[in-house]
Amino acid sequence: MPDPQAEQEHDRRHQLAEVRVRRSHDIERRWLRQVRRELGRHDVSRADLRDSMPEYLTRLADGLREIDNPDAPGRPAWEPVAREHAETRVRLGFDIDLVVREFIILRQILFEVIEEEGMLLDIRQSGRIADLIEGAIQAAVKSYVESRDLEARRRQAEHIGFIAHELRNPLTSAMRARSSSVGRSRSGSRRSERSPSSSETCAGSASSSTACC
Known about the structure:
- This protein is mostly helical.
- It has a domain at about 5-150: Orthogonal Bundle (Globin-like).
- The protein is built from eight helices and no strands.
- Helix 1 packs antiparallel against helix 4.
- The longest helix has about 70 residues, at about 125-195.
- It is elongated and about 90 Å long.
- The relative contact order is 0.10.
């Protein structure tokens, strides 16, 4: 026999998901405006700031529709989109506090929109939304730290490579100069060995003169 309470819960979650879909542009617009205000930077493009937010909203709606495991925060579902989002945030120079703040803002806006739609949430529905956002935050923080550390290692490797290159150039030049100097010295020695000395030349000339006499 169907459980009326479970069916009602299922219907309510689908309604929440539909609100998210119907109001997606409004949610994005309000989220972008508030994040940009808190970020305080106008050099970040709208596209970079928006980044993976549409995908996050899509996965949020999917998570609301799921009823098989309503208590799971859904972290595995966030990880693919979180990696892409984290790479952009590291590139833009976001700190981890702002990454977390992005999702807190999203949660606030979601509850505002739901209230505007005249929907009353019970503790289970509110908890489900909070769990999904918490799962997104956990995945975002994990991916951000991994991406930041990877970027730091990449920059360190580039720096070490640059230093090694700069050290190698003068060393190579010095070695070439030394090699050239040694080569000239040896060449000069060989020429000295082959050429008779002045005294030998004079002696030879004197002998020749005597012989002629």
